[in-house]
Design goal:
The protein is mainly alpha-helical and about 425 residues long. It has helices at about 5-20, 40-45, 45-55, 80-85, 105-110, 130-135, 145-150, 160, 175-180, 190-200, 225-235, 260-265, 270, 275-280, 305, 315-350, 360-380, 390-415, and strands at about 210, 215, 245, 250-255, 285, 290. It has one domain: Flavocytochrome C3, Chain A, domain 2 (Orthogonal Bundle). It is globular, with a radius of gyration of 23 Å. The structure holds heme C (4 copies).
C-alpha cells in the first residue's frame, strides 16, 4: 500500500471513531413476542442493557445535591408548596422522582389517588398501556384507576421504548403521537436521533385531562414555551378551565407536570443536537463491548461518559458549572414560590373584606394564576434549571413580577 493509501485508511478510522457513535457490535435480534412485558425475559437476550436497567432500583442522593432518587416530600425544603397547592392532592403528597422500576409502586402508594382517580394516571407508569390502548382506545382513561391497577404488573420496562421484534425505538403513548401530529410532526417517520429524545418525551412532559372523558392531552398547539402553553390554557381548551380552585385566593389554578422535554427543547443542548439519551443513557463499556447504559439517572453520576464525550473540561469544572446554575435557580424558585404564596394570602384576606372592588380582585386572581403557573413550570421540572438556564430564570423572573402585581391589585381592591 502506498503512503497516501495508509494515510487514507488511518483518516477513515479516525473519522469513523469520532463521528459514528453507535455501539460497535453486530447485535443479534431475539424474537420476543409483542405483549411480553417482563424485563427479565428480554434481559436473557440483552444482558448488559438489562443489568444496567436494574440499577434504576438504586436509591441515592445526586452529586449536585438537587434531584436524586431519595423519596422525600418536597415540602420539607419548600414549605410554600403547602400554601400554593392548598386544596389539591399535591399539598398532601409530593415526593422527589426516582428510578423507572418504581413508577408503578409509587403510583399505587401515593396518597394522591382515591376512588375517583381516573385510569389516565397509568399512562406513563407501565408498558401495559400498549395492550390496554389496543383493546379499549381512549376509553381506558375514564375507567377508575383502582379498577385497572390489579391488572398492572410491570412498570416502565423495555416495551415502553422498544419494538420487541426489531428492537427499534418506539413511542407507545398515544397522547404524545397525537400532540406531535397536531404540530405537523409524524413520530412514525422520526429519525433515530429524534427518537433518542421522543422516547423520553412521551412521558416527561406537561399534560392535562379532558374533563369529560379524562383523555390525556399535551397542550402544545401554540408551542412548547411556558407562555405559549399558558395562552393555550387561557382559551379553555376542551372545556378545561382549571385543575382546582385555590381555597384562599379562589383563583382557578393550573398544576404543571414535569416539562423536561419542553424545557430541554428550547435549550443550548437541544439546539446543538444533544438528545436526552446522550446525557442520561450514555455509552458504557463491558468486556470491551460498547452498550447503551439503561441506568436512567442523574448524568452527574457518570460525568466522564455523559459529558466528556463532548466537553474537554475536567469533571470538577462540569459539576461546578451545573451546581452554579442550580443554586441560582433554587434561590429564585424559592423567592417566586414564596411571593406567590403571599399573593394567595393577600387576595384571600381582601376577598373577606366588605365593599371590596370585585374587578380589581378578579384581576389579582388572574395574576396569581399566571404567577403560579410560571413558578410551578420551573419547580415541577426536574433538572433545577440545568436543561435550559436562560429560559428557566426568565420564567422565574416573570413569576415574581406577576406575583407582586397580584399583591398590589389585591391591595388596590381594598382602597375604597
Ligand atoms: C426509556 C426508554 C428505554 C427503555 C425502558 C429501554 N431501552 Fe433499550 N434503548 C433505549 C435507547 C434510547 C437506546 C439507544 C438506541 C439508539 O441509539 O439507536 C437503547 C438501546 C438498546 C439496545 C441496543 C444496543 C445498545 O446497547 O445500544 C438494546 C439491546 C436494548 N436497548 C435493550 C433493552 C432492554 C433489554 C430493556 C429492558 C430491560 C430496554 N432496552 C429498556 C431506550 C430504552
Ligand atoms: C413511560 C413513561 C416514561 C418514559 C418512557 C421515560 N420516563 Fe423517566 N420517569 C418516568 C416516571 C413516572 C418517573 C418517576 C418514577 C417514580 O418516582 O416512581 C421517571 C423518572 C426519571 C428519572 C429520575 C430517576 C432518579 O433516579 O431520580 C430520570 C432521570 C428520567 N426519568 C429520565 C428519563 C429519560 C432520559 C427517558 C428517556 C430515555 C425517560 N426517563 C423515559 C416516566 C417515564
Ligand atoms: C446535556 C445533558 C442533558 C440532556 C441533553 C438532558 N438532561 Fe436531564 N439532566 C441533566 C442534568 C445535568 C441534570 C441534573 C442532575 C442532578 O442534579 O444531579 C438532569 C436532570 C434530569 C432529571 C431529574 C433527575 C433527578 O435526579 O431527579 C430528569 C427527569 C431529566 N433530567 C430528564 C431529561 C429528559 C427527559 C431529557 C430530554 C428531553 C433530558 N433530561 C435531557 C442533563 C441532561
Ligand atoms: C453530544 C455533545 C454534548 C454532551 C454529551 C454534553 N454537552 Fe454540554 N454542550 C454541548 C454544546 C454543543 C454546547 C453549546 C456551547 C458549546 O459549544 O460549548 C454545550 C454547552 C454546555 C454548557 C454551557 C451552557 C449552559 O447551558 O450552561 C454547560 C454548562 C454544559 N454544556 C454542561 C454539560 C454537562 C454537565 C453535560 C453532561 C451531563 C453535557 N454538557 C453534555 C455539547 C454537549
Amino acid at each position: 500500500m502506498t503512503l497516501t493509501g495508509i494515510a487514507l485508511v488511518v483518516l477513515f478510522i479516525i473519522v469513523f471513531q469520532v463521528f459514528v457513535r453507535k455501539p460497535n457490535t453486530t447485535m443479534k435480534i431475539a424474537t420476543i413476542p409483542e405483549g411480553e412485558y417482563d424485563p427479565a425475559v428480554w434481559g436473557q437476550y440483552y444482558p448488559p442493557e438489562y443489568k444496567s436497567y436494574l440499577r434504576t432500583k438504586e436509591i441515592a442522593a445526586s452529586p449536585t445535591g438537587y434531584g436524586g432518587s431519595e423519596k422525600v416530600q418536597k415540602s420539607v425544603k419548600e414549605p410554600e408548596i403547602l400554601i400554593n397547592f392548598k386544596g389539591m392532592p399535591f399539598s398532601v403528597d409530593y415526593t422527589e422522582d426516582r428510578g423507572h422500576v418504581y413508577a408503578l409502586d409509587d403510583l399505587k402508594n401515593t396518597k394522591r389517588i382515591n376512588q375517583t382517580t381516573a385510569g389516565s394516571c397509568m399512562t406513563c407508569k407501565t408498558a401495559q398501556l400498549a395492550d390496554i390502548f389496543k383493546e379499549k382506545g381512549w376509553d381506558y382513561a375514564k375507567i377508575p384507576l383502582l379498577e385497572l391497577l390489579p391488572k398492572l404488573k410491570h412498570p416502565i420496562v423495555c416495551a415502553n421504548c422498544h419494538d420487541p421484534k426489531t428492537m427499534n425505538l418506539r413511542v407507545i403513548n398515544p397522547a404524545f403521537t397525537e400532540a406531535m401530529a397536531q404540530r405537523g410532526i409524524d413520530v412514525k417517520k422520526a429519525s433515530r436521533e429524534q427518537m433518542r429524545s421522543y422516547v423520553c418525551g412521551q412521558c416527561h412532559v406537561e399534560y392535562y385531562f379532558v374533563p369529560t372523558n379524562k383523555k390525556v392531552v399535551l397542550p402544545w398547539v401554540k408551542g412548547l414555551h411556558p407562555e405559549q402553553i399558558y395562552e393555550y390554557y387561557s382559551e379553555t381548551p376542551n372545556e378545561f378551565a382549571m385543575d382546582w380552585k385555590h381555597p384562599d385566593s379562589e383563583a382557578k389554578m393550573l398544576k404543571a407536570q414535569h416539562p423536561e422535554f419542553e424545557v430541554w427543547s428550547g435549550g443550548v443542548h437541544a439546539s446543538s443536537g444533544v438528545s436526552c439519551v446522550d446525557c442520561h443513557m450514555p455509552y458504557m463499556k463491558v468486556d470491551g463491548r460498547k452498550y447503551t447504559s439503561h441506568w436512567v439517572t442523574s448524568p452527574m453520576k457518570h460525568i466522564k461518559e455523559a459529558c466528556r464525550t463532548c466537553h474537554t473540561q475536567s469533571e470538577q469544572w462540569l459539576i461546578d458549572r451545573v451546581k452554579t446554575t442550580q443554586t441560582g435557580v433554587w434561590e429564585m424558585q424559592r423567592t417566586a414560590g414564596q411571593t406567590v404564596a403571599k399573593a394567595h394570602q393577600t387576595i384571600g384576606k381582601a376577598s373577606k373584606a366588605t365593599g371590596v372592588n370585585k374587578t380589581e380582585l378578579d384581576k389579582a386572581r388572574e395574576l396569581v394564576r399566571r404567577a403560579q403557573w410560571y413558578w410551578d413550570f420551573v419547580a415541577a421540572e426536574n433538572s433545577m434549571g440545568f436543561h435550559n438556564p436562560t429560559m428557566i430564570l426568565t420564567t422565574l423572573g416573570r413569576s415574581v413580577d406577576l406575583a407582586h402585581r397580584a399583591i398590589s391589585s389585591s391591595e388596590k381592591a381594598l382602597d375604597k
